[in-house]
UniProtKB/TrEMBL annotation, chains A, B, C, D:
It comes from the Bacteria. This is Formyltetrahydrofolate deformylase. Catalyzes the hydrolysis of 10-formyltetrahydrofolate (formyl-FH4) to formate and tetrahydrofolate (FH4). It holds the Pfam family ACT. Residues 5-84 form the ACT domain. The gene is purU. Its EC number is 3.5.1.10.
Length: 278, 278, 278, 278
């Protein structure tokens, strides 16, 4: 008996649920949970099923594809730990939260390595017997720096996601394109607000009563990729911008870990710069 | 072309989704949205589908029942305004919120009448051209009082829900049984805390930092029926119990209106003193 | 025995609390509550005290001013109902919430009138025996329209606040300047996000997971006045922009009523496009 | 120039603020922030001031005590790292969050040691070069076990707080009395709900839509000490009790860290089984 996550992304038409559930039925699979969504505006159909039964993964995938339109995307995934690469700069809170969750067994993930442009977090990461790679950006141009990072990433073999846990360098379009829908970032603001440098200072000067954070996939619109999760906290006039930044760290780590968990459990569909999350 | 809400409550077994979706497919129905849940502990299956197509309501209901196990509950509901009776005592906030939402067209409901044991809210209710019935409990025993209320309820014909918008009298087991799963109450606490009289005073004396409210169906366990919706707000030491009560009113009205909306849209299944909400 | 709210807004210097509390002590006043805040960046001091005792309001005000620097603002206010004018367009939810709270006695306010550019809300407002004035903007230029509104406002005598309960016309700089720090608006977004037309549609297209609302004083930066209160709710992919708009209404009414309550209780200081709220 | 936190806990009477602020003024101290609260029911006055200036700590304390009633409690505290002892059992999440915050420099604390009745968390704690003491409860009676723990605590010298980061043994009344108002616990429920064993299972069976956690000082009413902080999250029917437990961990760690931070910053007053938090 195996368990599979089946993810279907299709143009909507009548009978999709019928066709897929008939495949499950004929293969004698048990549906443990099932979520569907139709976006009427774009006429897109999304379905995520958790099934178990005695079936070969490829056979299941083929059987589903056979009954669905040609341009449908079907993924059949066996639940198992995914490989992730974390990139960070100097701040400890978001990375630390992931390390502790990993240590506690809360994440379906192997952390292959942490790559940083500074060595500041090395001693922390080494405590957890995880490789730490410092790729300094000093004295090299952006392209050279990134190529070194890519080389480092490649040296760890296949991976599923790159998690930017407060990696404070802007990535080149080439880098982003290479790893499309694979890079998860935490933005220190609730998009689409205060884009750019020091959003906490901007928020302070604006006199906001709420601050937040946004986890999103990175694409080539700066800070503008598909949003996965957002959260906020209330602040008041007594918060300096540094107080906001401190409180913001708590939101940032919560939101990034939440987004990572959703990705690891294959709960996210990306389309039209948006996400469907089951 | 008609739209239907299909609600299915069955013992779980393999193939239920397949069978139902095949019925939809064969009847040429379009699935607009679809939610399912299996409670593994009790082996119960719940499904709510929104479909449209050219089909007779009874024919659809029969077709579904035909393919499902005998003890399955199937409801096919055409979206339309439901009839509700509101019961209140003296407090205005929860009733007022419902009246304003009704006036704004936010509720799929006709308010047949407001029944109260006091006349205090009469002038408010009359502003909205809704019948107001005062059934005083003074000088009569509980059974007689309730019988008068039941007579009043019956005089308005068929109804779908009784909404207790801060009705502060305890209902008899007979009353509750008569209208099982039809009475929605707002409890001035987040269950299961501070059951009984003046929960805000109890909360104050306990020094809580959070207060809340719970909307639930009424059954014969006092304040213990199936929970539909809950919400909280933060308080601090500067709140007297009357301040908590005032702030609590805002939570109460929000939660009751949310629960009512869920009921009116046929989104609630009740089982084992719990709810499944799609 | 009278109760007073004392509001002090001064440039910070040593001894301010000492000086003010000495005045209270010498006048034999009891401090019921006391809040202070120093903004170190702008070197501003804010204090709000609730005191009671047997003293004349003017005498108290003079006594405080005497001991404080010349450019200090001192307000001594007797708690009593303030006069408010509400402006609305066609939407009922925010206005309705204020009307119900007013009816329930929750607001320290007399509603002098509701002024709208449409007659749509007239029947609702009239239910509550509150004057409703339709000042149509059709066929007249902006200045003429506003002058008619100003004439209408003036006809009701002194007032403390104008509440824009979803008034959907842009006010001229002249209007805004005339009533500086007296106009409270509810913005259908959590500032500084999605400024401009149809923020819900923008939010939907951006795929946000949170929507919110902002109550603020109106100044001559469109949607950019000092923020009083903000709140958010979570949404997901299943929300169309109209669903977001519907859910947004609930946030809007909560936030506007919260801001109005703060203003009526003299809890807000405005400075540098920000607010201090005690 | 030194900075001091001044905490005053007195029976309320006229002139307290005046008297204290006069002391500050005469000593030429600058008030950086100031909070007061009067509990009218119990006639208690609480004040926390942050001041700086050129004064001796003892001189400041004496000067304040001199002008206040005899039974007043006055604390003058220089901000510096406090010493804490953490007690845990087997769960990693709450302890891990504190360790990471400590590592990030977010806590004004030295962690003297982690004491546990199991060795399960030893390797984690040792990563951070913090002493870990296993005091097994097996084969010894409760009193003997606790005496060993007390011996271990004593071996680390003076400490300010004991943090129970999911320490799952009931403490004896003697232990609790010895460290009155010094033990901070995280309770896996939002009090006063579901007291006792497996609250998540109880919550699941009750069908709640909200779960939460409570940080409180421990006294001799089981789970009933003065509440410091509470937080909740929303759940739904799809959560098994194990899912609730997992989600609950996130709330637990957030609330415990928040409470610890408040304690370390001397922001908490305890009285009548409640807290005042500035």
């Amino acid at each position: 008996m195996s368990q599979f996550r089946v993810l279907i992304d299709a143009n909507d038409e009548k009978g999709l649920v019928h066709k897929v559930s008939t495949v499950f039925y004929n293969l004698n699979l048990n549906i443990l949970s099932n979520s569907e969504f139709v976006d009427k505006e774009s006429n897109k159909f999304f379905m995520r099923s958790l099934v178990d039964g005695d079936v070969d993964k490829r056979a299941l995938s083929s059987a589903i594809k056979e009954v669905l339109p040609l341009d449908t995307t079907v993924k059949v995934i066996e639940p198992k730990k995914k490989n992730i690469i974390i990139m960070a700069t100097k701040e400890l809170h978001a990375l630390g939260d992931i390390l502790i969750r990993h240590e506690a067994g809360e994440l379906e993930a192997n952390i292959l390595a942490v790559i940083s442009n500074y060595d500041k977090l090395e001693s922390l990461v080494n405590k957890f017997d995880i490789p730490y790679v410092t790729v300094s950006h000093e004295g090299v141009d952006r392209e050279t720096h990134e190529q070194k990072i890519i080389d480092s990433i490649n040296s760890y073999g296949d991976f599923d996601y790159i998690v930017l846990a407060k990696y404070m360098r802007i990535l080149t379009p080439q880098f982003v394109e290479t790893y499309e829908d694979k890079i998860i970032n935490i933005h220190h603001s609730f998009l689409p607000a205060f884009i750019g440098a020091n959003p906490y200072k901007q928020a302070y000067e604006r006199g906001v009563k709420i601050i937040g954070a946004t986890a999103h996939f990175v694409n080539n619109n700066l800070d503008e990729g598909p949003i996965i999760a957002q959260e906020v906290i209330h602040v008041d006039h007594a918060y300096s911008w540094k107080d906001m930044q401190k409180s913001g760290k708590d939101v940032e780590k919560v939101v990034l870990s939440r987004a990572l968990k959703l990705a690891l459990e294959d709960r996210i569909f990306v389309y039209e710069n948006k996400t469907v999350i089951f």
